[in-house]
Design a protein that fits this description.
mainly alpha; two-stranded parallel sheet; Rossmann fold; 14 helices; single chain; 325 residues; 2 domains; Tyrosyl-Transfer RNA Synthetase
């Protein structure tokens, strides 16, 4: 199976990124042909600092490696370094109705969030994402639940192209984790964890132990004292139970039994300790990798070469079918 996925270089990864996507990637690379990208062209559709972009790209590459992605088992590369992504996105735009792009939930949300930065790139974001996936004829796309709508549009675009010009693209399937597809904010458990929207409620994957403890102990819980998984009635403690389960490997029911006579405070202390111990290897590895800039750049260059070979082959097919070649 061929797998494609990517993350924008917009700041340090958090546990939601890891549990919702990257943890899957690490497993998938063992038995599949995987391409994982740093999607910097997507990052420039919302406000960003040009002076920090290259630094963010390098740091995200180090973080990919720190959490277990292996350049011997997968292809790691920077999106903008493979020009075929932008080229195919333009082509796909010629067969995609404007109305389909306007109805995308993410476009509506980002437009509200950045009213002074509503650009054509933001509207065309799903076209670029479709190009990312279709360019490599991916079978599966492991993403967070918020990207599901974009993958569905990608499938529709693939069908439309194949019907009009002949069979070129596969129709990719979205791959969501069985648990943890959406980790909620520690401060507002009714909203998804996000570093940009709610820094205090976001737990970074490489945070220092003191900061992990501080954020977990101040996490919003619910009325009552019972440690019970009930997302509708008790969203706060349910979010913490889910995080505990995913990092410990224990079933939620078992955790509930362990803490049935305990307090929220004791449960949080235990969760903070679990997270500190679980994330320590990631933190150490990232720190070490960031001292090896040349090594990281070489991995990305080798990844670019491998990705570009596949991308060029697909674009030759596309152009031939469309009469452009």
């Amino acid at each position: 199976m061929r797998i494609f996925s990517g993350i924008r270089p917009t700041g340090e990864l958090h546990i939601g990124n890891y549990l919702g996507a990257i943890k899957q990637w690490v497993k998938l690379q063992q038995e599949n042909e995987c391409l994982f990208s740093i999607v910097d062209l997507h990052a420039i559709t919302t406000p960003y600092n040009p002076k920090e972009l290259q630094k963010n790209i390098l740091e995200l590459a180090a973080e990919y490696l720190a959490v277990g992605l292996d350049p011997e088992k997968c292809i790691l590369f920077v999106q903008s370094q493979v020009k075929e992504h932008a080229e195919l996105a333009w082509i796909l735009g010629t067969i995609t109705p404007l109305g389909e792009l306007k109805r995308m939930t993410q476009f509506k949300e980002k437009s509200k969030k950045h009213p002074d930065y509503v650009n054509a790139g933001l509207l065309n974001y799903p076209l670029l994402m479709a190009a990312d996936i279709l360019l490599y004829k991916a079978d599966l796309v492991p993403v967070g639940v918020d990207q599901r709508q974009h993958v569905e549009l990608t499938r529709e675009i693939a069908r439309r192209f194949n019907k009009r010009f002949g069979p070129v693209f596969k129709e990719p399937q979205v791959l969501l984790p069985k648990m943890g597809e959406k980790i909620m904010s520690l401060q507002n458990p009714t909203k998804k964890m996000s570093k940009t929207d709610d820094p205090k409620g976001c737990l970074g994957l490489f945070e220092e132990p003191e900061e992990i403890k501080k954020k977990v102990m101040s996490a919003v819980t619910d009325s009552g004292k019972k440690i019970k998984y009930d997302p509708k009635r008790k969203p706060g403690i349910s979010n913490l139970l889910l995080i505990y389960s995913l990092f410990s490997g224990k079933a939620i029911e078992k955790i509930e039994k362990e803490f049935k006579d305990g307090s929220y405070k004791n449960f949080k202390k235990s969760l903070a300790e679990l997270l500190i111990n679980s994330l320590e290897p990631f933190r150490k590895k990232r720190k070490e990798l960031l001292t090896r800039e040349v090594y990281i750049k070489e991995i990305l260059e080798q990844g670019r070469k491998k990705a570009q070979l596949i991308a060029q082959s697909t674009m030759m097919e596309v152009k031939k079918q469309m009469g452009l070649f």
